[in-house]
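So, is this right?
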Amino acid sequence: MPTPPPGPRGEILGRLNYDFWRSDMFGFLATLAESYGDVAGFDLGGSSCILVNGAAEVRELFFDREGCLRKPEFVKDSNRGHWGDGLTSLEGAAWRTRRRVLRPSFTARQVSARMPVVAQCAADMLDRWAAGADLLRELRILTARVSARFVLDADVEGYSDAAGRSGALPLEEAYGEDYASIPGGDPTAMLIMTRPRAPRRMDTAIRIIDERIASGEDRGDVLSDLIERRLPDGGRLTRDDIVGEVIQMLYAGHLTIPYTLTSFWRDIAANDAAGRIATESEQLCPAAVADSTVLSRSYCLAALKESMRLHPAAPILYREVEIPFELGGFEFARNVAVWVSPQLLHVDPRYFPEPHRFLPERFMKGGLAPTSGSVYLPFGAGPRACVGRHLAAHEMTLIALLAARRFTPEWISERLV
């Protein structure tokens, strides 16, 4: 008979755990793993939780047991917002069908074809940086512009000539609202999801979607793919399905891309990696655009991956048990919260020697390959890993290389404080 995982439980320990968590969340998780092992149970306030922290256990959880898990409602709410469901908030058969529909939009060929758009938008942003613009704001606008081009073949008003495209999104639609999703509306909840999301009014985006559904015009963007692709039963996505997916995808990178790039610039400034990246930028981007195959072998991408190891944009991955199961000889009961911490795994010396050193060579050919995608998790793991992860990684690499031709990382870092 499987038993619950060992760990500090009960009303009194739940309160003490909560106080420790609030004062030092990753110190609490590290102490938990050190004291009880790679599968540890704990109460946090009134919630029953399990931390999963070993390579084999994480792999089994996300690859073999994903169908037994669900995303919590507050995480779905942060993605869904005022609009309908999309890939990040669907479950079960509906999620599997949507993933199958979207996967062809993110192949290596599609990623490569979209790099010129990234280069053009990045060049516009770098010109504004030189004029003294707010770097963090411009990074988010850059993310919004690239997403609008990929998803809607649209641009952002005031930032480019939209002639020949579907139109231009008003800045308020492209930039969105900052939102904190709080479980049960409780401001003392153990986890609060804070991220940008779509505002309540998306009139221009909805107009573009409706016009394109009516015309059936193929503009080579994700919206065209969603309209055209057939479902397994031969049908097509409904208008509401398309709206929910498009709105979610417009905001998919608004948190991760600005956060990852700012961490990257600080890391290379602090670790004497800037010169190599600047030299590489002249070699790989002589005409401002690099092929994605070239980017995939670059030192810059390796440095970006190493920065994501040290500073994962999602430091905790959170699920809830929908169907009870056994893992590592322990019981995972229905409705228990399951935590995996990339922040903890990424600095575990079992998997990353000298874990606190910035060593991009880990991610270059012949380097120290992480264990089977189960301990290096900047984009999640298993079937629910981010469908656009390769596009995002190459997009950020190209932006970083183009920035290296214009500015030092020290100059950038000083203006990101």
In short: The chain has 19 helices and eleven strands. The chain has one domain: 54-414. The chain has a mean pLDDT of 91.
